[in-house]
UniProtKB/TrEMBL annotation:
Domain Rhodanese: 16-108
Protein name: Rhodanese-like protein
Pfam families per UniProt: Rhodanese
Annotated organism of origin: Alloalcanivorax balearicus MACL04
Record lineage: Bacteria, Pseudomonadati, Pseudomonadota, Gammaproteobacteria, Oceanospirillales
Signal peptide stretch: none
Entries under InterPro entries matching the protein: GlpE_sulfurtransferase (IPR050229), Rhodanese-like_dom (IPR001763), Rhodanese-like_dom_sf (IPR036873), Thiosulphate_STrfase_CS (IPR001307)
Length: 108
């Protein structure tokens, strides 16, 4: 099973309107300064408390990301979700920095 997704595949899925939930695992202040299009914010330390409400469908495709490859928030959040029974969790390991480096827009 491939647990990660690359920038071009994520962009293609977003452009095609593929059903997924995009989750930024950074603190709220970082989310508000700019996030990937359509993303919701669930900081990694809040995933256990908020997943049941924010992510009710355990079969949904969920893509978790954070700042960059050095940031571990998305890995922590994705690991929790998988352990909690979410069946289609992908991590965009390169995160927001990679998205911006490609010239793709952020939402605020």
């Amino acid at each position: 099973m491939n647990d990660s997704i690359q920038r071009d595949e994520l962009k293609r899925r977003l452009e095609n309107g593929d059903p997924m939930v995009l989750v930024e695992a950074l603190p709220e202040r970082h989310f508000h300064s700019g996030h990937l299009p359509g993303a919701i914010n669930i900081p990694h330390e809040e995933v256990s408390a908020r997943a049941g409400t924010a992510l009710p469908d355990k079969d949904a495709t969920i893509v978790v990301y954070c700042a960059n490859t050095g940031c571990q928030n998305s890995r922590i959040a994705a690991g929790f979700l998988r352990g909690a029974g979410y069946r289609n969790v992908l991590e965009y390991v390169e995160g927001k920095a990679d998205w911006q480096e490609a010239g793709y827009p952020l939402e605020t």
